Amino acid sequence: MTYKEVASAAGHPGAFRAVGTMMKANHDPDVPCHRVVRSDLRPGEYNRSGGEEAKTKRLRSEGVIVRDGRVIRG
Question: How far is CA 70 from the centre of its chain?
Fold first, then answer.
């Protein structure tokens, strides 16, 4: 899901930046914040070490296709 989709699902479609802020502040490994991506489908930042590269690697390990720096939806 994108940050905007998460905000919309929570009933606040304009709160996508707040979702990003919450994901950045999350350090609970049980919350899959790495699965939330930017609206342009680029992975975006990751609050664990490794940044966007680590987020991309983790997404790929779960079977998500990332091509040319963007998540491919299917």
Answer: 11
Note the pTM of the prediction, 2 decimals: 0.88
Give the tens place of pLDDT for each residue, 63-73: 999 999 999 99
CATH fit for domain 3-72, picks 1.10.10.10, 3.40.50.12780, 3.30.70.100, 1.10.3720.10: 1.10.10.10
Q: How far is CA 17 from CA 3, 33, 58, 62, in A?
A: 7, 14, 23, 25
Q: What do you get for the CA distance between the two ends of the chain, in Å?
A: 12
